[in-house]
Amino acid sequence: MIIGKGKSIKDILAMIENHSKIIVAGCRGCVTVCAAGGEKEVGILSAALSLARGKDGKPIEIKEVTLERQCDSEYLESIRSFVDEYEAVVSIACGAGVQFMAEKFRKIPLYPGIDTNFIGVTEAQGVWTERCQACGDCKLHITGGICPISRCAKSLFNGPCGGSAKGKCEVNPEVDCGWQLIYDRLKELGKLDQLEIIIPINDWSNSRDGGPRKIIREDLTL
Amino acid sequence: MAGCMEGNCHYLTGNLRARKRVEYTKKILDEIGIGGERLEMYNMSAAQGPRFVEIANEMTERIKKLGPNPIKLAASTKSEEGAQKEREECFV
Amino acid sequence: MTSDSRLEKILSRGDFAVTSECGPPRGADPEIIRKKGTLIKDFVDAINVTDNQTSVVRMSSFSSCVILKQMGINPVLQMVTRDRNRIAIQSDILGAAALGINNILCLSGDHQKFGDHAKAKNVYDLDSIHLIQTVKQMRDEGKFLGGDDIKGKPRFFIGAAANPFADPFEFRVIRLAKKVAAGAQFIQTQCIYNLNRFKEWMQLVRDRGLHEKVHILGGVTPMKSLGMANYMKKMVPGMDVPDELIARIKGVPKEKQAEEGIKMCVETIQHLREIEGVHGVHIMAIEWEEMVPHIVQNAGLLPRPKIE
Q1: HEC-encoded secondary structure of chain A
Q2: Is pLDDT at B83 greater than 80 in this prediction?
Q3: A84 at the B interface (CB within 8 A)?
């Protein structure tokens, strides 16, 4: 899922400086799972903003809203009836949600309350790590189920580099060397010979490098 | 905020989780300028009456030194009404 | 010969080659490179110029190589894939060839976190093995990666790096084999302090017959002091500095440590000459280039062969 983390309250306060009536909008999707933008976080952020503004003698009215998702139009419609009564929306959904909301509600400024970081997994309670870079050309079948693009700091296709030491990446001793993981996994699977084959130069045109992407499923369009 | 002695929680880790959340809340209170020192968590058993009194006094002294709620202070120095927060939840 | 490279000629003849490196300046003064080149040119067969090593911005390897070439020196262009995409890479390969540079060392490059511009975007459009393939394709097939024909094929002697001391140990030789399969013709290794481990690696290299397919030059770096020895042991990933070495340097008084370091470096070179499959030495005397003539002389490697 998409993992994000709340922006600093100072930064958000700066965004809403000139507003006295705002909506704080959360999302029950990914950001709820990573405790960045769910209903609970909407409550915490709203309380913090209220208190901060109260302290500065510039009180603020905040409407708390948590949508099922902010990346689907029908759920965004749920706030149409009252959104124009407010001066701004702080959305703590992921970057996609913030943008979609901005597209649907054009008369009101949209501010992001979180930073969207990566596509990842919950390794343990409170610990999320990156797994996927959405390159659009999945090679996990060649690398034992471990992605060289997202798990190698240099996105090497024929790693590891010379800086791999004791299974850790030269960039950060707490980060596993992606290619050590691939090596270990292929060894467990008895497929080390796969590593003797050169994985070819990548076609990056299907990833972000190729430009903003779109998928149309003809079988699903109306 | 009072919780049982660590290791003696009826809910096993309830007081440990509470401590983490209190620390997080203190950080937020610091960040927004209210001051994290206005919140503190103490561990004690139900039998420690005198300790409870000690802590209550300690906290009272601390709060007196820190002064009144800065929000009330700001509100009372301005003639307008204070912050209003509508709690409405919108489920879809 | 696949290129006009003097280094290629020397290695093909079976001579023990000597290469070294120059670190370019952190400014635009060409004199600094000229001075370094002058210091070592008569003692080596080719001089590498590092490419924004450890992600610290320096005068480009490309331009420094041109300056050296103008002095009649044979440069080895080090190229990392961290900072440039395949378009810039192929373009630079053509440009370097046009300016008479005919040796290239293909590297991925240290991550930018190590340098003075940790906020930069990294590229890594290709990795080092892809870069080797690219140079080979341009040279031998005369085709760009995109498929179009090259009018005026670049000729290069292609090199790569190898680190016998990084992990996983068993995999290092497989990776070397991949580089050779991709087209690497010479290898310069990470600096060697643990001779036993290097010998183990060379055995694995010979078991695969790689020593007959690629010229391996063992890397050496003289220790300047105990401080440097400790730093390299603890702080540099992929470096293996045995305790005996630390003890040896520690055992001499501070003023004598540099001399001991040079002595050990010369001994290492002498050992390397005995190892089957090692065809040369690559002396990396970082910011101590003035010691290279001394080391080459004491290791009995003078005079260097004259080739036209």
Answers
A1: CEEEEECCHHHHHHHCCCCCEEEEEEECCHHHHCCCCCHHHHHHHHHHHHHHHHHCCCCCEEEEEEECCCCCHHHHHHHHHHHCCCCEEEECCCHHHHHHHHHHCCCCCEEECEEEEEEEEEEECCEEEEEECCCCCCCCCCCCCCCHHHHCCCCCCCCCCCCCECCEECCEEEEECHHHHHHHHHHHCCCHHHHHCCCCCCCHHHCHHHCCCCCCCCCCCC
A2: no
A3: no
What's the complex ipTM? 0.92
Q: Which chains have 3+ CB pairs within 8 A of C?
A: A
pLDDT digits (tens, 9 = 90+) for C200-235: 999 999 999 999 999 999 999 999 999 999 988 887
3-state secondary structure of C282: strand
| Contact assignment for A156 to C124 by CB distance below 8 Å | yes
pLDDT (tens digit per residue) in C36-69: 999 999 999 999 999 999 899 999 999 999 999 9
Closest C-alpha to C277, from C180, C183, C193: C180
Nearest Cα to A40, choosing from A64, A70, A20?
A64
In this prediction the pTM is: 0.91
CATH 3.40.50.2300 spans which residues of chain A? Answer: 2-118
Report yes or no: A31 and A114 within 8 Å, Cβ to Cβ.
yes
- Per-residue pLDDT at B8: 87
Mutate to test the interface with C, among A135, A143, A154, A164 (most CBs of C within 10 A): A154
A18-75 tens-digit pLDDT: 999 999 999 999 999 999 999 999 999 999 999 999 999 899 999 999 999 999 999 9
Class for the domain spanning A2-118: alpha beta
Q: Which domains does chain C have, with CATH numbers?
A: 6-298 (3.20.20.220)
Which residue, among A201, A203, A204, A208, would best test binding to C if mutated, counting the most C CBs under 10 Å from its CB? A201
Q: If you measure CA to CA, which chain B residue comes closest to A81?
A: B90
Flag if A163 and C237 touch (Cβ within 8 Å). Answer: yes
Q: Count of CB contacts below 8 A, A vs B?
A: 74
A51 and B CB contact within 8 Å: yes
Residues paired with C104 in a beta bridge? C77, C158
Residues of B in contact with A56 (CB under 8 A): 33, 74
> What residue type is assigned to position C270 of the chain?
Q
Q: Which chains have 3+ CB pairs within 8 A of A?
A: B, C
A touches B, CB cut-off 8 Å, minimum 3 pairs: yes
The count of CB pairs under 8 A between chains A and C is 88
CB within 8 Å: A162 and C161: yes
